[in-house]
Amino acid sequence: MMTQRSENTGPPPSSPDQPPNYEPDKSESQLDPPINQHVMALVTFLALLPLVYFVPDWVGQFLPDIKWLNVTVAVAIIVPIISYIVMPVARWVLNRGFRD
Questions:
Q1: pTM of whole model > 0.90?
Q2: Is residue 9 part of a domain?
Q3: Bigger pLDDT: 39 or 25?
């Protein structure tokens, strides 16, 4: 037996500490137009190429000759670089181009 869930399409109920017509401030990044997913895929590809090419060899110099350890450390270095440096900078640059 399935029960139907009612969809609440109205505004969320206001909490006691917020006025009834409260709308949270939108940060600048929320106002920017979305970036095409194909452009972001290209940016990711171009950013990963040199990292995947150079980081494993560089890391391999300092680690024992254990392939899984080399791969694990290389990925642990590459992922934060992409996630916290390359992609935010790319979004900032691409969004800045839309505003000008």
A1: no
A2: no
A3: 39
